[in-house]
Amino acid sequence: MPPNQKPSYVGHRERIREKFASGGLDHFLDHETLELLLTYCIARRDTKPTAWALIKRFGNLSAVLDAPLEELMSVKGVGKQSALFLKLIRAVFKKYSLEEVQDKITIRTPDEVLTYCKASLAEHTEECLELIYLSVRNTVIGTEIVSSGTLDRVSISPRKIVERALAAKASAIILVHNHPSGDPTPSADDIAVTKEVTRAAALLGITVHDHIIIGRGQHYSLKANGRI
Length: 228
Known about the structure:
This protein is of the alpha+beta class.
């Protein structure tokens, strides 16, 4: 290469950054978004092959960001720093989503918290139960993962859930948990636990607004489907 000639990837980095600067991500394909992100953590190398390798391995941008650190590092061209950078982007999105929910005046429908729920639990490879605590005006006052592993009527204690809600000074709660299998359809235990928690909470004046199950690109609201 002549001394004054820049490597081809340098021009590509400049073009893809300018594309974002002029129009945001609206017209970016998933692999282009990854190319752009990787330019900030991979120096002196074309990021396009690595972006395509990630898409080929995981399927789409969301799945890449949800992937565990070790699986990201198994992709050719992705080192520890690159994998950590992608996980940082995912963590920032989760924090942003929570703050967006907390900034709302009231929470009345599952859709208003769904973005946060997906951001919070979609990447977990084991089942987790998260509580969203609401004030008397239905503003979000906090969240907490209270159980993980295999969730059933034995591992989820309605008493523990109510105690955590009382400790948070919540007037209402939304239960959220994930199905790592990808299918958000509630099991018999999911429905039974929801009913038990709802009854226990009602005795102390706490309302269970919903139980949302997160799957792979899907969700199921027990409230919207008449199960609460």
